[in-house]
Amino acid sequence: MSSIHPVNWNNRTLQHPLGDSLTHGSTYLSVYSQIYSESEHRTHDLTVTVSMRNTNTADTVFINKAEYFNTRGHAIRTYFARPIYIAPMETVEIVIDEQDQEGGTGANFLFDWFINPNTHEPLFESVMISTSGQQGISFTTQGKRIE
Q: Could you tell me the pLDDT band of residue 17, with boundaries at 50, 70 and 90?
């Protein structure tokens, strides 16, 4: 149900190990594949776009893991098995289809990443949206570094 391969992860996979001189971090990103409406018994399904952004103009960032969890904290899927790169000023996206309800109302991502010292950390954002007729709902979240 989810767009697991919005880009060809194999074309982004590093063929060599990451160097020891890189700085490591982890970022938490809340996402909502569903939200409550009117009561706790009615929900609306949402499409989620997760953006992994490199805000550096000259340095590449490396994402070691993008793992998706549901409301109960159970891992749903990991999006790539080996580190990928994001070129300077590039954005790579993961899309979770509106019909994919696995994440629920409290879904989240955990990203592990590596950067060159003295460069900007990657930016993780999500946009949730749903439309029906002439009504729509949309909102955003931003990642928080946890390590």
A: confident
Q: Report the distance separating Cα 147 and Cα 112, nearest Å.
A: 9
Asked if residues 142 and 127 have their Cβ atoms less than 8 Å apart, the reply is: no
Based on the number of CB atoms within 10 Å of its own CB, is 113 exposed (0-12), middle (13-18) or buried (19 or more)? buried
DSSP 2: -
CB neighbourhood size of 81 (10 A): 10
- Per-residue pLDDT tens digits for 38-76: 788 888 899 999 999 999 999 999 999 999 999 999 999
H helices of 6-74, where? 9-12
Measured CA to CA, the distance from residue 132 to residue 86 in angstroms comes to: 34
Residue 112 host element (H or E): strand 108-115
What are the phi and psi torsion angles at 98 (to 5°)?
-60, -35
Counting beta carbons within 10 angstroms of the beta carbon of residue 57, is it exposed (0 to 12), middle (13 to 18) or buried (19 or more)?
A: exposed
Cβ partners under 8 Å of residue 91, min gap 6: 51, 52, 53, 54
- What single DSSP character describes residue 26? E
Distance (Å, whole) CA 35 – CA 43: 5
